Amino acid sequence: VALAATGKVEDAVAERAKFAQAVADVPKEAMAQQNPAHNVLKIAAHVVDGEIAYARRDFKSAAEELKAAVVLEDNLRYIEPPDWMVPVRHTLGAVYLDADQPADAERVYREDLTRWPKNGWSLLGLTKALERQGKKAEAAQINKEYEAAWEQADFKPHASCMCAPLAGR
To answer: What is the rounded distance in angstroms from the CA atom of residue 93 to the CA atom of residue 127?
Structure first.
């Protein structure tokens, strides 16, 4: 994922192949806390493939991979902390914003906020999705929630995932 996000796409593809080989060595009965390890590893595979497609600006493929990961993530058994730590919807929403599909991004961020209320990453993405749709008053209200969520942070992101172009400005 880091390689894809930093523009080293071919290196990311090579590492993805090594990941697939390593996954094959994980025993079928292995667990990741509350969930079968292979269920979590399937999420990882879709996320990596989605991030590689995103780095290639293939928004359609990126969204398809990430939507598959979201379904798998939603079906994990609940545990704190979750077996999959970073909500996939943060990346999916960023892909939709980059693909100029703000209504889809809005839906994704709202879904995430039902699962993780007041999540600063999704509040940021939702603000941007609403702004791009011309929903200025609602965007301003959500932006206040975003600012409150990050008011004590040393760093404020510029996108809902660090994989988005210029996210770490």
So the answer is: 11
